[in-house]
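User: Second chain of the day. Same drill as before.
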Amino acid sequence: MFSRIALLCALAASSGAMELKSPDGGLALTFDVKGGAPVYSVARDGKPIVTESRLGLEIEGAALTKFAVVGHRVSSHDETWKPVYGERSSIRDHYNQLVVDLGTLRLTFRAYDEGVAFCYTLPKGTGSVTIARENTEFRFPFDHTAWAVYSAQGKYEKVPVSKIKKGCERPLVLQAADDLFIAVGEAKLVDFARMKFAPLSPNAVVSDLSSKVTAALPLTTPWRFIMVAESAGRLLENNFLLLNLNDPCAIADTSWIKPGKIIREVTLTTIGGKACVDFAVSRGLQYVEFDAGWYGNEYDDKSDARAVNLDPKRSKGPLDLHEVIRYANERGIGIILYVNRRALERQLDEVLPLYRKWGVKGVKYGFVNVGSPEWTSWLHMAVRKAAEHKLMVDIHDEYRPTGYSRTYPNLMTQEGIGGDETKPVNTQSLTLQFTRFIAGAADNTICYYDARVDQLATHAYQLAKAVCFYSPWQFLYWYDRPPASPQKTPGAGGATPVMGDEPELEFYDHVPTVWDDTKVLQGKIGEYAVIARRSGAEWFIGFMNSGDARTFDEPLTFLDTGKKYTAHVYSDDPTVPTRTHVRIERKPVEQGSVLTLRAVMNGGVAVRIAPQ
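Assistant: Same format as last time:
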């Protein structure tokens, strides 16, 4: 075994360079020490992806400037594991690994077929160490096109690498050629400072930590990864790489962790809560969420998340939350409560066991602090503590995932995205599809009847979003309320649209939130996405379109041979006499059938393919 692996990591006699290849041999990472500085490069099929780039940490009170290799070891790993839930029911974790000992610093490199990854370890000494800066370079051979954004919920810009500014978010996606796409980012950020990117001339970026890091030795940094694929869609398909770079599930009994669809209760009233529960039962949803305002003004440090005290600016009530929880649990519907970080930081150890006692199933953490190692550690500690009380978690606002849901799958989803409430244009949503979603699930707060749907897209586009935008907890009808729910008053946040009974809602009734298989059939960043996902014996297809009308003829090669299916196709048609104008067609299909998908300008198509 060792001799075979050693061939993958051979020392060149002239320079001391080491080469680590991916299992399929397509990717090669080269490591060397030049002038006392560790450097690396990455190539695919012999063509440069990342040219010679330096690696390094700046340590306060210590000089880590002159290195020499004092030892190295190589290994390989190949296993298939099953996540509690995900975009696929099984994941292969297959890589070759090189660990280089530089004395005061150890570097670990992994080469996967999907990309390469590496991390730093400070192995020696006692006490603590302070990392002032991390100087990980990513130098590219040309001034590639990149999609840059400077906050987790910001607006993406399509720019050359040379125009990237300090504070660029991860993952950073670049296009090197028509058939070459790259994604650079981090994985397994648990108790370290968040990494972003800063410009480094020419054609390069460098790691940009949000703050200094002081920690006990030994200390290992999060992983830095470089994914490489022939298309933006394949990068998205390969996003399981981030999960592979995280530790296995740490929760022994995961039976209480339940993905599902959610409706937000917008009135903060008992009547509205029960109406949402009844709606969830009738339409196949699993949860009702009470958002900000149920325990007072979320921005007031005096608000007590241990008791129900309505914020009068959001609702006049009345709200008997305990009665709604009882009513919901009796009908198999879970209740989720929103809590702003101001209350969480003061009352976390009190509210988690209390909510469990109330019968609550999950908590949505709002406006969390991110970036520094202190707040990163606190937030992941808060996820672990929620698991101790069998509570699921949704983290909102600026937090972006790095794969921790593998280790603690009670972290169901997170924001880190400019969701529907921010009125994203379709080009923004279709950029997020191939950039932000590489990092993992995103809570986009999908809405259906709200006026912004007609302003920005179409209703078939919104249906497709439930397939394309992966989130194990999928919020639907974000601004909508069931007919039995009371009308909100202007003093309580204004009117919200009343749901109808349009026939196409059957698609939301059937669509799941987690999957056994995922395939990106078509995709162009900012323009369109056609994604097929399987749950059991059924397939679902989402086609989101930006700009002019588009048509794709999709061969259904992924269906089982010899089986007969019915394709339920939901598309936009202004002649359909409903307020949503969605046409439903039902077609017999089988393996090899070609399904024509036609999306109007800024529209979409949603498809459910079920065995006959």
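DSSP finds eleven helices and 35 strands in the chain.

User: Great, on to the next one.
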